[in-house]
Amino acid sequence: MNYYAKPFEDLISQFIKLPGIGPKSAQRLAFYILSLPQNEVKELSDALIEAKNKIKFCSKCFNLTIDDPCIICSDNLRDKTKLCVVAEPKDLIAIERSGQYTGLYHILGGVISPLDGISPNTLRIKELLTRIKNENIKEIIMALNPTVEGEATVIYLTKLISPIGIELTRIAYGLPAGSDLDYADEITIMRAVNDRVKIK
After folding, report:
1. What pLDDT, in 10s, does the model give residues 53-85?
2. Is 79 helix (H, G, I), strand (E, B) or coil?
3. With 80 as the cut, is the pLDDT of residue 179 above it?
4. Domains of the chain (ranges, CATH numbers)
5. What's the pTM value of the predicted model, to 2 decimals?
6. Most C-beta atoms within 10 A of its C-beta, which of 46, 47, 121, 143?
7. What does the alpha-carbon distance between residue 45 and residue 47 come to, in Å, rounded to a whole number?
8. Beta 64-65 vs 79-86: how paired, if at all?
9. What b-and-e string marks burial along 48-75, b requiring 16 or more CB atoms within 10 Å of the CB?
């Protein structure tokens, strides 16, 4: 028996399609939308349509942008000899938020994951190699998550890039401030030990 009117069921089914949203969360969101004033629902709808229509990928780094190239690629104050390789736009944002990196980026669009159907050909690796060939890149910084898939992607890229003779580095992974060792996973501890620094 269907307890809800069809438009409400349709709304729930649309929310379920979103990543990380299950049936109960979708139902809560649907109830929340119905509780909003009409003008706020329209604002949400307009924002979704505008984002979909106006946001595109930067043709150089594949960051989300309105202008092409994006604000980072077109910034003449950035160090154009450094290229930080990340999986997703959200990773770029995390690094930018730190305020410590002033080079350029290349967004792969994910990491190698055969179980999820993501192969090297699915990622923007060919575009990365083209940039290395055509731009004055002197250092490639790997900034992929320390997961099995992230490690596999780093190994794959290292085999491709090492023969070119460009300096290859990776961001250090360690323990977050205020954390306990017994709560850290094995990869985090391994990276923390391997990337240890000398105490002055």
Report:
1. 999 999 999 999 999 999 999 999 999 999 999
2. strand
3. no
4. 6-54 (1.10.8.420), 64-194 (3.40.1360.10)
5. 0.82
6. 143
7. 5
8. unpaired
9. eeeeeeeeebbebbbbbbeeeebebbee
